[in-house]
Amino acid sequence: MSFVKNAWYVAGWAPSEDVRLFSRTILGKSIVFFRKTNDQWSAIENVCPHRFAPLDKGKVVGDTLQCGYHGLRFDEHGICVHNPIGNGRIPKAAKVDSYPVIEKYKLIWVWTGDKEAADPAKIPDYSILEDEGWVHATGGYLHCNANYQLLIDNLLDLSHVAFLHPLLGNEGMSGGKLDLQETDTTIQSNFFMAEIDSPPFYAPRYKEGSKVDNWLNMKWHAPSSLLLDFGVTDVGKSRDVGLQGIATHILTPETDGTVHYFYSVGWPTEEDAAANVEQHHEMQGKIFSTEDKPMLEECQKNMGTTDLWDLNPVLLSGDAAAVRARRFIGRMLAQEAIEP
Ligand code: FES
Ligand SMILES: [Fe+2]
Questions:
Q1: What residue numbers bound the domain in which 321 lies?
Q2: Atom in ligand 1 nearest the alpha carbon of residue 53
């Protein structure tokens, strides 16, 4: 498995306060997340070093997590701080890995690499999820049996919308223009389609089939967090007079061949669409689970475990952003491979 380790990954949407414990496999490691008495999250390896019980079958006791099998208690650093058995002596080896974890933008972010480098300022900017000018339906989660880079390809090459998603697009989109910008942490892929038939998703504000300009501006933040600014407007008019939405698409590799996908959709508070945001969120989940997911899983099956480049894929102009992201990830992996 080759993953970028020095990165913040989303472990989940922040749950309500009564949820004190959950687990998630990230980069092939099972991690258990538990809340301390001050409500801050801790993240430690989800395997007890005694008889290897999953710690998520235990319970939170004060600021520690108690193993559900023989009761060892571990603190936020993964150190065993209490042994209820016999004389209570704590063996030196009674410890597990711990991970920096932060709740931010309604999401729980975990750092999987060198702890010293875990700078909260490196968390991708999803502040729009907390912007009062927007109404977001959050909490979307799907699991997909494909490598996370196939999902990045999918999200950065939105030429597929014209063919795979009848609710979101139509073949008139395939003449769209692509504009790319890259920084040292992001790739911005702006896809603009002039004067196309409005896709059904934008009804009733824009009647299906009426002529519109449509934009799909995807920002990829290395290694796998994406944010889509999308919408339609009257032909030739500025975006301000149109209907603009925001969708988050955040990927966290589970294993080499599986990925967690966290999504949301939002509209400006004053838009009529904001009243139907939950309905759009449901639609978003249905589109991904019935259209993208089966296609991606079939692609992965056909590829097996062979790397994309070793299969000599045909390249199309719509791939440009996805290819850049793959190269970007390749550079990050190479960098981590040479670091001590
Ligand atoms: S397996 Fe955890 S205390 Fe025994
Ligand atoms: Fe899609």
A1: 132-338
A2: 1
